[in-house]
Amino acid sequence: MTGPGPRVAVVGAGMMGEALTRGLLRAGWDPSHIVLSDVRADRLESLQSELGVEVAADAAAAAGAASEGLILAVKPQDAAAVLRAVGPSTKSRTMMSIVAGLRTSSVREIVDGPCVRAMPNTPARVGKGVTALAAPEDVPEESRQLAAEVFSSVGPVLWVEERWMDVVTAVSGSGPAYVFLLAEAMIEAAVGLGLDPQSAATLVATTIEGAGSMLTGTMQEPKVLRDQVTSPKGTTAAALDVLAKRQFREAISEAVHAAARRSGELGA
Fold first, then answer.
1. In this structure, are residues 204 and 190 in contact, taking their beta carbons and an 8 Å threshold?
2. How many CB atoms lie within 10 A of CB 34?
3. pLDDT digit string (tens) for 23-41?
4. What is the dihedral of CA 178, 180, 184, 187, to 10 degrees?
5. Got the DSSP string for 207-242?
6. Which of 114, 122, 205, 246 has a Cα-to-Cα distance from 133 of 20 to 30 A?
7. pTM (2 decimals)?
């Protein structure tokens, strides 16, 4: 990106709000074009000191200071109150909501102006996130471009119909936790077999990172890559046989369905 970037506010300086702020700065945005707001004054002070961004005492002040975009990065239970607070300032600004389950129709019941719904995931903290974006048909192209520019600062973006956002939440939004649980289990198994914890953690983390890079780098189907590492009657085949008997696929499918249902419940 060339230039300082549009002026946007990030309401909610939690993990994802901070990740987006850092991503924008890495992408070349001027710190003076980013306004942070949070209920924790000490949190704001720390981030302002470290990152040099502007801060605002509350959501309304942040929205008033941001001329082009507002990123809603608060907890679902806090979203309605924040939307009411920023409502008067949103008519000419693009609202970008990363609140899990919050539908654009619900946002529009409280505020005017264009709204884009986004679902990034936690690898955004290291610039390796992926974000799904959705917006009603009447959202103007400039608002779509702004949302794409903001979220591409932390990884690739893709546009989907909003009806698929609960599935996106279940797959990529919650997905890192599934991978981390797998990592925990693999480390525990390795330590149980006598390997020291540090070596186990290094082996597991780099294995998962490498496998993910193969998925994105080779663009081959997961089954093809799995078959390539699975020799008949070999060690991998023995392990996969156990996972099949323990209904590994079924457990993952049930978990994703449960997350999608919960996302729908949050939206309701």
1. yes
2. 25
3. 999 999 999 999 999 989 9
4. 120
5. HHHHHHHHHHHH---HHHHHHHH--TTSHHHHHHHH
6. 205
7. 0.89
